[in-house]
From TrEMBL:
Protein name: ABC transporter ATP-binding protein
Organism: Virgibacillus kekensis
PROSITE patterns xref list: ABC_TRANSPORTER_1, ABC_TRANSPORTER_2
Keyword annotations of the record: ATP-binding, Nucleotide-binding, Transport
Taxonomic lineage: Bacteria, Bacillati, Bacillota, Bacilli, Bacillales
InterPro entries per the UniProt record, alphabetical: AAA+_ATPase, ABC_transp_ATP-bind, ABC_transporter-like_ATP-bd, ABC_transporter-like_CS, Oligopep_ABC_C, P-loop_NTPase
């Protein structure tokens, strides 16, 4: 596919207290193709939301690049250029209530972007556009004069979607857009997002905390662990042929629909908690919980490599320089 975004060695560090540094995102690289849904997954605290916000320039990057249509959005830009990125790249938030101003009507919330970006000529057109957008997301024009608290969680998320759509974006980051919703409502919101993608050729970065949530909607998937990217591949490859031990463990935690297979299956249990990103383990950050950890894993940071075509992984098991210990162990059974 054609690259819409190219994320290159992106880092976002935060100062904590006087001396400590939280390396929330610590050097991730991947591409997002035009028209696709890229699912970004990992446990809470792995840096996926921070990555999303840094890609969108809600945070300044500490290091690295986010190239959108070939231009690094983190370079110093003129106000005019920034305004274009601000329009083309939008976000849908996890908590639709917290992200909607409670003192603004739905009309005001959705029209805000139209005004900022001068997308309507007059009040009549503004009103018509908001009514159209409400219809697009499955609400109606009677909703325009109400306030966020008058809506259900699912409806509020639809308002969030309408707000994002108002400025005609190319790229939308959806940060756990359905996690806070009832299960019965989740599918409706996902269906809406997929319909909009088909109709408008949108590109999504869909952030979720587990693989089962992104399975059916993602063309490609990235798995993050403690500020690093562990693996990136097509959805099919991630689910059928996961390379990284962390991905394998995440997958084995998803219940299978067939109870027969489910009972006989071996579960990979990841021991322990996620270490603190302020003092991550040396070498491979997953080594304290990895069932295959070798001596080298404590000493050398695994290289981010394209192990197979379009299948990226950071793990010494896939580097012949380092995997002798593992191969020996495997041969001994
Ligand atoms: Fe496990 Fe080592 Fe691979 Fe890290 S590099 S995932 S510790 S085998
Ligand atoms: Mg988050």
């Amino acid at each position: 596919g054609e690259k819409l975004l190219e994320i290159k060695d992106l880092k976002k560090h935060f100062k904590v207290g006087r001396k400590q540094i939280l390396k929330a995102v610590d050097g991730i690289s991947f591409d997002i193709y035009r028209g696709e849904t890229f699912g970004l997954v990992g446990e809470s605290g792995c840096g996926k939301s921070t990555a999303g916000r840094t890609i969108l320039r809600l945070y300044d990057a500490t290091e690295g690049e986010v190239n959108f249509e070939g231009v690094n959005v983190h370079d110093k830009k003129s106000k005019k250029d920034l305004k274009i990125f601000n329009r083309k790249m939008q976000m849908i938030f996890q908590d639709p209530y917290a992200s909607l101003n409670p003192r603004m009507t739905v009309m005001e919330i959705i029209a805000e972007g139209l005004d900022i970006h001068d997308l309507v000529k007059n009040k009549t057109e503004r009103k018509e556009r908001v009514h159209e957008l409400l219809k697009t997301v499955g609400l109606n024009k009677e909703h325009a004069d109400r306030y966020p608290h008058e809506f259900s969680g699912g409806q509020r998320q639809r308002i969030g979607v309408a707000r994002a759509l108002a400025v005609d974006p190319d790229f939308i980051i959806a940060d756990e857009p359905i996690s806070a919703l009832d299960v019965s409502i989740q599918a409706q919101v996902v269906n809406l997002l997929q319909k909009l993608q088909r109709e408008r050729g949108l590109t999504y970065l869909f952030i979720a905390h587990d693989l089962s949530m992104v399975k059916h909607i993602s063309d490609r998937v990235g798995v993050m662990y403690l500020g690093n990217m562990a693996e990136v591949a097509s959805s099919d490859d991630i689910y059928e042929e996961p390379l990284h031990p962390y991905t394998q463990a995440l997958l084995s935690a998803i219940p299978l629909p067939d109870p027969e297979i489910e009972r006989s299956r071996e579960r990979i249990v990841i021991e322990g908690d996620v270490p603190s990103p302020i003092a991550p383990p040396s070498g491979c950050r997953f080594r304290t919980r990895c069932p295959h950890a070798m001596d080298v894993c404590a000493k050398v940071v695994p290289e981010w490599q394209e192990y197979k075509k379009d299948h990226w992984v950071a793990c010494h098991l896939y580097n012949d320089k380092y995997n002798d210990e593992y191969k020996k162990r495997e041969n001994q059974g």
